[in-house]
Records
---
Amino acid sequence: MRTASSGLADKFRSMVARVGAALHAQREIEARRALQRYRHLLEQPREALPLNEIIPVSNEKDISGHAHGLDAHERTAGQPTFEGA
């Protein structure tokens, strides 16, 4: 014979199982979306180029000029360079 408390426990277990199944299904959907979103990061590169071909190398004068918002070629002789500061 079933008591009222065992019937309530069965309902609770059933509810917890449904919530667990819903969370599992949602997590599966999120994992699939993440794989689609970041697929380009997971693929193997077809042909790797050397780094110096991808990013041009600048000399030190150009780098310091850009750091101050100035083009090194446009800087006049009277402007301070702040490179030794």
---
Amino acid sequence: MKIDLEKDYPNIAKAIEEKDLDEIRYFVVADENYVDIDDEEVDVFEPENYNFLVYVTERLSNALGEDGLKELIAKLYEVKEFENFLDSELDLYGVKSELSGNEVAKKLLSLSNDILGAKS
């Protein structure tokens, strides 16, 4: 999904070097979670509990820093549109929501933008 980084997320734009990035996937990836019948491993994010796997890219992780990622996680636990939320790592989450994958990703970008704005 296309975004206007400078207009929509100005604090993220200030925090990164590359200014010509115009897609959400450069910052957050929200993929649908599904049962892989060929995988014998037990999944931390069961699809019935978490319909999206969300990954914060290295670019956004570096901009936020460890403290910013911890703050983001705390805020994500409070998002009312998320029925379930679980952080497996600082940059990897399970989300259950009626929102689309793009809407989930935009929610993370918006919160990240707010966190970076408060830092400056």
---
Amino acid sequence: MKSMKYSAPLLLSAVICAPFTAAVADPVATLPGRDNAFSYTYLQGGVDVGNLRNPRADADTVYVEGSYAIDPNLHVRGGLGYYDGDVRRGGADIHGHRISAGLGFNTLLQNDLDFVASGDVVQVRAKSGGSSASDTGLELRGGVRHRTTDRLQLAGGAFHENIDRSDTGLYGEALFNVQQSLDVGARVQVGDDIGTVGLFGRYNF
């Protein structure tokens, strides 16, 4: 995973800079009542692989996540993931789950460009050998979401999680529309200790 940790920031920089480049080229002021018609009500599932911080392990994670818009600018969020892998120091097997629930905020910045922020309460449970541990903390995210073409969306920003251990880094996401309500996507996040990549499918309601 070391090579990914150093190459991924280049991909993240391209993802994050693309929306701002478009914004400069098309400076449209935000007007009351306008929105970019992004869906913030969806259900998605996928797989992430790579280095986790909480717990500190090299693991594969299978997850389901959802979001529901309760207002044009607010959405509730939640997720459940199961991971399995190896502790990075010692190599012991480790597995467990990660549960999150929180609130997200979105607002129009430009045509086809939204600012998005979220705060989640996260519980992580880990089992290794004959012992188990459970920790609860927070994850904060802030970034932008951009409609690059009629079928392609790019998103990127920064995250900070503080559960048993803390970490700060960047995330990026690409979302491709396959059918009217169905998207497929890829995502990456890189921090001081975190380095994961993943694929997912999303159904928009």
